[in-house]
Amino acid sequence: MRTSRDNQPRDNRPEENRKRTLDRVISKFGLGSRTEARSWIGAGRVTVNGKKIQSPDLWVDPDVDKVALDGRPITASEKQYLLLYKPKGYLTTYKDPEGRPTIYDLLGGVKEFVFPVGRLDQDTTGLLMLTNDGGFGDYITSPESKVPKTYLVKSSQLLSEDQLEQLRRGVTLSDGPTAPAVVKRIRDSQKYTFFEITITEGRNRQVRRMVEALGAKVLKLVRVRIGTLEIAGLEIGKYRPLTAEEIRTLRKPSRGSGHSDRRADRRGDRRGDQEKDQQRDRQQDAGPRAKVRREAERPRRSGSSGRGANETRRRGRND
User: Fold this and answer.
1) Is 306 left (phi over 0), alpha (psi -120 to 50) or beta?
2) Residue 159 pLDDT exceeds 90
3) What CA–CA distance (Å, rounded) separates 155 from 211?
4) pTM: predicted TM-score of the whole model, two decimal places
5) Which among 198, 247, 236, 251 has a CA at the least distance from the CA of 82?
6) What's the pLDDT tens digit per position in 49-61?
7) CATH topology of domain 81-253
8) Active site residues
9) In the chain, which residue ranges form alpha helices assigned H by DSSP?
10) What are phi and psi of 184, to 5 degrees?
11) Which of 124, 126, 194, 245 would be 186's cystine partner, CB 3.0–4.6 Å?
């Protein structure tokens, strides 16, 4: 089923942030890969606002510009959200000139074209999302979204706690320092360290390069978690659709985002001030002044004159 682009919710991002190159727009509408889109554009089959365009690098706004293929306006495919357990040896690409297997060889039965949300290199296994929802894919891969991705790593040598701490603090790579990471040692064998690392960035071969910055190599790398999505229950080489709840959860701002951090800091400051005030009050209640105050109040509660007051004063002196 295909629905008209006019029926899609309008993107509220600024115009300059909505624009994409023509080949990317065609691909993200689910019509084919970017390579196919470039061939269609080069063959003169694509028009933008009625004008034939043969440059795939033209920037267009899919919400405003009218893009057509073979004279027919392109329409958005029904949204697809898939989770694949990528095996080792498969390329995250549509077609390989050398004929090596790609992730699309594993997607039998998927009628709409979907693109990978991020990439895993040939030797890396684990979770990979695919979709034809460009906005969703952009959100997940955006550094500002800080969607956490967790990997299980086998290093080529034993790593000290100091080395793991370097990963936690961040290491300097050729494209700049990495953001702090969550690192958990799983176990050590005689020669290797197995650990888990969670990052919120998505640089090329980032985990491998981080380990190399320590003077070691990655022997095995498995992505076991994306946000709240777990690898458990998914067979290697198989895929499943995401549930509506999983999609909604992934779209929520990450707790690691800057706004969330600042709000959490402010809440923590307020809670800290409240706890300090409560502690000070408890200390005052337990102090000498509090005892004098309680004793002074007892006669008023028992009566201000007569036998009751005298008995209260005597009991107060004996407390």
Assistant:
1) left
2) yes
3) 8
4) 0.67
5) 247
6) 999 999 999 999 9
7) Pseudouridine synthase (3.30.2350)
8) 121
9) 15-18, 22-28, 34-42, 134-141, 161-169, 206-212, 244-251, 258-286, 288-302, 306-318
10) -130, 125
11) 194
